[in-house]
From TrEMBL:
Keywords: DNA-binding, Membrane, Transcription, Transcription regulation, Transmembrane, Transmembrane helix. It comes from Pseudoalteromonas luteoviolacea DSM 6061. PANTHER family: ARAC-FAMILY TRANSCRIPTIONAL REGULATOR. It comes from the Bacteria. This is HTH araC/xylS-type domain-containing protein. GO terms for molecular function: DNA-binding transcription factor activity; sequence-specific DNA binding. The chain crosses the membrane at residues 6-25, 37-56, 62-83, 119-140, 152-173, 179-202. Residues 256-356 form the HTH araC/xylS-type domain. InterPro entries: Homeodomain-like_sf, HTH_AraC, HTH_AraC-typ_CS, Tscrpt_reg_AraC-type_HTH.
Length: 360
């Protein structure tokens, strides 16, 4: 009875994960582009319970198949690392580079399953935990993506990798705990995937409510690295999206918190759409909030905070930090744009401003 329940649970989890991943890919513009990597990571992780389902369904007891499923965790680690560290859509060269260890270990297990050495497992564990360490180091403290800020997601990823390590150690030592640990790993993976899938479905539902124009034809245009969406009936929708004064006031307070407390402006990849998601409003409403209620623009607001932050760094860094480093630490993409914006706002260069402050 328990085996049958376990088997069906694995199947439901896999189907649900596939469905919600498809939804995320369909509505990819509602999410940060690097979220594609997390979708790939979940698909790779899904292979573990899927293989377990096949084993239980057809009564297959092959250690090799279980070891192959164990390799999928390495692929999961690679894609999760790319999710946290990359700010671009999936690129072939990145995927090829980080899939290489998985392909290597998979080949070793298939070709020389009975000749594996302890050294191979040490390398395997080293790769997995180096990925986890890098993920913790690169996890942004301030990001427009709520998934990247989630400590719970980080802890869950670490737990799954650590549990997978216990399964491998138990298998190597031929312990009687191998099967219980393997079952616990599969159930944990299923719980993680189902929780994430429900969250994704909820997020898509929220975005769909905020963006009813998704049902109409969109024209996507690129403007200074941001994506703007326009529909054929945009004028009608603009009227429907006008913010009341009370809602605008709440959004302004929330925006001030995001900029002052979380220092959202330090993210040089921040877009208007991402800011709108943090404010729980549409992209058009965010634009209206800035233009009509705050009498400013998206980039003007960000650059004002970036220059103020740069001034603080200039005052406390003396001559130790370079202007280029201060520019990057303040959210600017390069030194040139920093100089132009600094001189535009303060009427002088960063070097002259710092010297003047030191003299006083």
């Amino acid at each position: 009875m328990w085996i049958e329940l376990q088997r069906e649970f694995y199947l439901v989890c896999c189907v649900l994960t596939l469905f919600c991943t498809g939804l995320m890919l369909k509505y990819e513009k509602s999410f940060e582009e690097s979220a594609h990597y997390l979708s790939l990571a979940n698909l790779a992780l899904m292979l573990t319970p899927l293989i377990s389902y096949v084993q239980l369904k057809f009564n297959i007891h092959a250690p090799l198949i279980s070891q192959i499923a164990n390799c999928c965790i390495l692929l999961f680690c690679a894609f999760t690392y790319l999710f946290y560290c990359s700010k671009t859509p999936p690129r072939v060269k990145d995927l090829a580079l980080h899939c290489t260890p998985f392909v290597f270990f998979l080949s070793v297990k298939v070709i020389g399953f009975h000749t594996q050495t302890e050294l191979m497992y040490i390398i395997y564990f080293g790769l997995m935990f180096s990925y986890v360490t890098s993920i913790w180091q690169h996890a942004p403290k301030s990001s427009s993506n709520p998934l990247k800020r989630s400590k719970l997601l980080l802890i869950t990823i670490t737990y799954l990798v650590a549990l997978n390590g216990l399964v491998a150690v138990s298998y190597l030592s031929q312990s009687s705990w191998t099967y219980p640990l393997w079952s616990l790993l599969n159930i944990s993976i299923c719980c993680y995937l189902m929780t994430f899938s429900f969250y994704a479905a909820y997020r898509i539902n929220q975005v769909s409510k905020q963006n009813p124009q998704s049902r109409t034809k969109h024209i996507i245009t690129e403007d200074f690295g941001t994506q703007s969406y326009y529909s054929e009936d945009v004028i009608v929708k603009q009227r429907a999206f006008q913010l009341s004064d009370s809602v605008a006031k709440d959004c302004i307070e929330k925006m001030h918190h995001l900029l002052k407390k979380e220092q959202l402006f330090l993210d040089n990849q921040l877009t208007l759409g991402q800011l709108a998601i943090r404010l729980d409003i549409t992209q058009h409403q965010a634009s209206e909030l800035l233009n009509e209620h705050m009498h400013t623009s998206f980039y003007t607001l960000l650059n004002e905070h970036r220059v103020k932050h740069a001034c603080q760094l200039l005052m406390h860094s003396k001559n130790k930090a370079s202007i280029t480093q201060i520019a990057l630490d303040s959210g600017f993409n390069n030194k040139s744009s920093f100089y132009n914006e600094f001189k535009k706002q303060l009427g002088t260069t960063p070097n002259k401003w710092r010297l003047a402050r030191q003299e006083h």
